[in-house]
Design a protein that fits this description.
The complex is a heterodimer of chains A (116) and B (515). With 116 residues, chain A is mainly alpha-helical. With 515 residues, chain B is of the alpha+beta class. Chain B contains 15 helices and 15 strands. In chain B, a hairpin with a 3-residue loop joins strand 11 and strand 12. Chain B is globular. Classes of the chains: A mainly alpha (116), B alpha+beta (515). Chains A and B meet through helix 1, helix 2 and helix 3 of A and helix 2 and helix 3 of B.
Chain lengths: 116, 515
């Protein structure tokens, strides 16, 4: 049976972006911040406080885990990776957002038709 | 990036709950350095304050804040730092600062009213008692001008070396100053620690403090504060901003009298500086008790042997010329090493109950052990006649205000800009002044004013000509602006002289053995 992640949804924007950033591969905190900025076209920039608040929660929930890949000698920071559960939650959130988007587009189209 | 910004951010990180701080504090500090330029200090400051509030809220109200929840858009869920909006006003920033302070003090209040007494409190009490005894010694004049006795008064705060490329070329090291947490070591918060059992009076004062804080919090939470409330906020904001930049006093060369603790594991490798963007500062030392690395059991340190020795023996930054003997490579930047070490788990756990100054001292001793083991370092200490500055009374007499009885001993920057610094002192003795970072430079400073007692003063001085190392060059560079300020505003004068200085003599050192 497909697990139900509805109690974790909707994701907060910061959580969504952190999970999304980790789909590209293992990243350390600074890498996640850069990836989030890139994903949003530089519109949103996450600070370390927000980032690690979310990482702490995601680690606890098992959506993210520390990467076992050894970091380089000059890079003492830990890397994080998306777990299978994290992937599933992100997929569920994406599905939910897609539904919202469909409804929004339909509503806007109807509104425009009524006005015309 | 200025030390001020680093200190403020480090202080906020340090205020986080211990579990969060231990797990993410070091990475937060590192990431702060990386994103400061792109995100801006105000946004990162605000972000850290929000994180502080969220984490403490999660600790204090675990049921209501639902720390594990990642859903929803509540205040305690993830927040964006809206860089592009630019809607933060000074008032918003100040209000957030004060609210964070209030929260922190409330937690402290809750802890002090607890019936349980932790080992940390006991250790702190012993430390306070030691500092208190040191103050009494000074009151009797026994420690005047005596650097070894000054050690009792001022337990050695180690320094966090940070150096950028330009500064490295000039041999000038900036000192990341410890936070307000170091101040108990100087005894100014020791008055109520003489008894381990709280008295009725203690509870009364705590209750009053709690009521005042609660009232202020209520006032500050209002959206449209009156001018009076803004003034109250301004006064408290001053405390919030001034506290993290309170200046410590320097310790003396660290003499180990007991078997040295050692790292669980350590690697030493030759180090080549990586190419860095212009203006970016490379952290040279990250360790428990230092501003940036206080939350980790890892120690990461880069420097030539003289820097490593200076750090291990708590030598004042920029005083590497006090290390004598040994081969030339000891002082050469071409022979820099990178140390990565891990503190043993049980020792690190014990260090959690120490003050930052005590933590740094433990790391210093472990560094001494490491140097002795891997570099085969052997040193002894001597007192040599070296160029110093003598602090004397200028013509016209001193312009110092005697301190009031019971005033806490403090020295801190009240304003700091690129052009200048304003430093305020309360209840500072001249002996403490000459060992303070205010007179940080290439030479030691010796108090020859003959003035006893503690004084208050405010000093405004320009930073265009910082004191640079000119040891051994009689009649060297012109006096910096600080010298003029001291003469004009304090009625004191710094004159070149010679005096006894404790130095480290290297008897033996080898290139480090293989890992």
């Amino acid at each position: 049976m497909k697990p139900d992640y509805s109690d974790l949804l909707p994701l907060s924007p910061a959580t969504l972006h952190v999970l999304l950033a980790l789909t590209g591969g293992d990243l350390h905190g600074y890498g996640i911040m850069l990836e989030v900025a890139r994903q949003s076209g530089g519109q949103y920039k996450m600070g370390p406080g927000t980032l690690y608040d979310n990482i702490k929660k995601l680690l606890k929930l098992g959506l993210v885990e520390e990467s076992s890949a050894a970091s380089s000698e000059d890079e003492p920071r830990r890397r994080y990776r998306l777990t299978q559960m994290g992937h599933s939650v992100l997929a569920a959130e994406t599905e939910r957002l897609a539904g919202v988007l469909r409804e929004a587009r339909r509503g806007l189209r109807l509104h425009e038709e009524r006005q015309s | 990036m200025s030390n001020f910004q680093r200190r403020v951010y480090g202080a906020i990180v340090r205020l986080h709950p211990a579990d969060f701080r231990n797990e993410f504090g070091c990475e937060m500090a590192l990431d702060f350095e990386e994103v400061l330029e792109s995100n801006g200090f105000v946004a990162l400051y605000f972000d850290a304050l929000l994180s502080l509030g969220r984490q403490w809220a999660a600790c204090v109200f675990p049921e209501t804040t639902s720390q594990d929840s990642i859903a929803g858009q509540s205040l305690l869920a993830g927040q964006y730092v809206m860089i592009s909006r630019g809607c933060l006003t000074f008032f918003d920033l100040a209000r957030a600062s004060v609210l964070s302070l209030m929260l922190f003090l409330l937690i402290g209040f809750a802890m002090t009213t607890s019936n349980s007494r932790t080992v940390g409190i006991q250790a702190g009490h012993q430390d306070h008692q030691r500092a208190h005894n040191g103050l009494e010694d000074h009151a009797r004049g026994e420690g005047k001008g005596d650097r070894s006795s000054g050690r009792e008064l001022i337990p050695a705060p180690n320094y966090d070396l940070a150096r950028d490329n330009t500064a490295a070329a000039a041999g000038y090291f900036r000192r990341a100053l410890p936070s307000i947490d170091d101040l108990p070591d100087r005894g100014w918060r020791t008055k109520h620690s003489s008894s381990t059992e709280p008295t009725v009076e203690d509870h009364l004062w705590q209750a009053i403090a709690f009521a005042v804080m609660a009232l202020l919090t209520m006032l500050l939470l209002r959206r449209r504060p009156s001018m009076g409330r803004k003034m109250v906020l301004g006064a408290f904001s001053f405390l919030v901003f001034a506290a993290p930049v309170a200046l410590p006093l320097y310790g003396q060369i660290l003499h180990a009298s007991e078997p040295l603790p050692s790292f669980e594991v350590a690697t030493i490798r030759p180090w080549e500086p990586p190419p860095l963007p212009i203006g970016q500062v490379l952290p040279m030392k990250v360790s428990p008790g230092s501003l940036r690395g206080q939350m980790s059991d890892r120690v990461h340190f880069i420097g030539q042997a003289a820097i490593l020795i200076g750090s291990a023996y708590n030598l004042q930054p920029g005083h590497e010329d006090h290390i004598l003997g040994g081969p030339d490579w000891v002082q050469q930047q071409a022979h820099r090493y990178q140390i990565q070490a891990k503190i043993e788990e049980s020792l690190y756990a014990a260090m959690q109950k120490m003050t930052p100054a005590q933590q740094r001292e433990q790391v210093d001793l472990m560094e001494q052990s490491l140097l002795a083991d891997r570099f085969k370092l052997k040193v002894h200490f001597e007192t040599r006649e070296m160029p110093v500055y003598a602090l004397v009374v200028a013509k016209g007499g001193p312009k110092l205000t005697p301190a009031k009885d019971g005033e806490p001993s403090r020295l801190f920057n009240t304003a700091e800009t690129e052009r200048g610094i304003e430093t305020a002192a309360t209840a500072i003795t001249l002996d403490e002044l000459v060992h303070s970072p205010l007179l940080f430079g290439g030479r030691d400073v010796i108090d020859k004013t003959g003035l006893k007692g503690a004084y208050d003063f405010t000093l405004k001085w320009g930073r265009e000509q910082p004191i640079v190392s000119d040891a051994g060059q009689e009649g060297g560079a012109d006096a910096p602006l600080l010298f003029t300020a001291i003469q004009e505003q304090l009625g004191l004068r710094l004159v070149r002289s010679k005096g006894p200085v404790e130095v480290i003599v290297v008897d033996h050192i080898e290139q480090p053995s293989a890992n």
